[in-house]
Amino acid sequence: MAEASVLLDQNQFSCPICLDLLKDPVTIPCGHSYFYSCPQCKQTFTPRPVLGRNTILAEVVRNLKKTGLQAATPADHYAGPEDVECDFCTGRKRKAVKSCLVCLASYCETHLQPHYESPAFKKHKLTDAIGSWQDKVCSLHDRPLEVYCRTDQQCICYLCTMDEHRGHDTVSAVAQRAEKQKQMSETQREFQQRIQMREKELQELREAMGSFTRSAQSTVEDSERIFTEMIRSIERRRSEVIQLIRDQEKAAVSQAEGHMERLEQEIDELKRRQSELEQLSHTEDHIHFLQRLQGFSVTAEAGFAPRISFCPRSDFENVRKVVSELKDQLENVCENITAEIHHTG
Fold first, then answer.
1. CB 53 within 8 A of CB 24
2. Keywords on this record (predicted)?
3. What per-residue confidence (pLDDT) applies to 74?
4. Based on C-alpha coordinates, what's the Rg of the chain?
């Protein structure tokens, strides 16, 4: 209630023209606090009336400034560093909410009221608060840019159509905006169509990528399983081949050991007979020599087995060859698989 009262008091004691609080109020015969021509009731006084200082009103205004001025204007209504300032505020500037393209000025909510209430501002065009007028005002004529020159493709003011742009193809900025807006709408529709088309392509690509990824994972799993089975099969074949080689080795070694044992026995027998013959050759008893010699075989080969030869069924060269060929075949198969994958990719 106190804040509403303060706002009411401030409005009652503000100048209806500049909307600031009265500074040194005086009274004229019509009852309003202005000069000899009253802006409110339009009554004029000739000759100029003697103006007397309204001490009561001045005191009320002074008290109002002390007690209610800060409360009447909230802090968030004042212009900040990034806000557009009101051109008519004195002292601390309030935040501008609108700009007038005719007055070429910006107004806060309070100073904007005459544009809404006074018929004199009826034809003025308001827009959002403009921080810099350089891009909105003609640099040659200091007038609002309200015309578009299609010949030079730039915004101009009405005076420019009579000077530098005389005879050019010109239209109002509103008409040019409407035409460009229509073109822009068509462009936006084209963009929307392209967006939809690209989004469809993107979705198809995502689905294809997902399908390809799933196929790749499935192929990896199948390949892992097949290679694992191949490795296990090769391991089994390896064990079988090694076992066969070991079996053949064992049989051949057993056979060779039998031959070696017989050879050693024959060698021992031959050495024994050689020793007996050596001893017999040194005897001086001729009869004993002849009688003993008849007990020996005529030749050294007599009574002995034929020559023993070791000929195993295989020297494993064929096995080595077959295993090597198998390795080459596996490498060729793996290279073909790799080449096929590269070709598919």
1. yes
2. Coiled coil, Metal-binding, Zinc, Zinc-finger
3. 60
4. 62
Q: What is the pLDDT of residues 196-206, one digit of tens each?
A: 999 999 999 99
Query: What is residue 3's predicted lDDT score, i.e. its pLDDT?
Result: 42
Residue 18 has pLDDT above 70, yes or no: no
Residue 86 sits in a domain whose CATH number is 4.10.830
The answer to whether residue 90 scores a pLDDT higher than 50 is: yes
Cα distances from 331 to residues 91, 234, 245, 327, 343, in angstroms, run: 92, 14, 24, 6, 18
> 68 lies in which domain range?
1-72
The answer to whether residue 87 is domain-embedded is yes
Looking at residue 21, which CATH number applies to its domain?
Answer: 3.30.40.10
Tell me whether residue 119 is in a domain.
Answer: yes
Q: Choose among 113, 97, 84, 150: nearest CA to 19.
A: 113
Among candidate residues 64, 102, 58, 109, the one with its CA nearest the CA of residue 88: 109
Total domain count, the chain: 2
CB 136 within 8 A of CB 164: no
Residue 6 within any structural domain of the chain:
yes
Question: What's the pLDDT at 306?
Answer: 66
Mean pLDDT of 45-49: 61
- In the predicted structure, residue 225 carries a pLDDT above the cut 60: yes
pTM listed for this prediction: 0.43
The CA angle 74-59-44, to the nearest 5 degrees, is 95
86 and 55 within one domain = no
CB-based contacts of 83-89 (< 8 A; 24+ apart in sequence): 83/129, 84/129, 84/130, 84/131, 86/111, 88/18, 88/19, 89/20
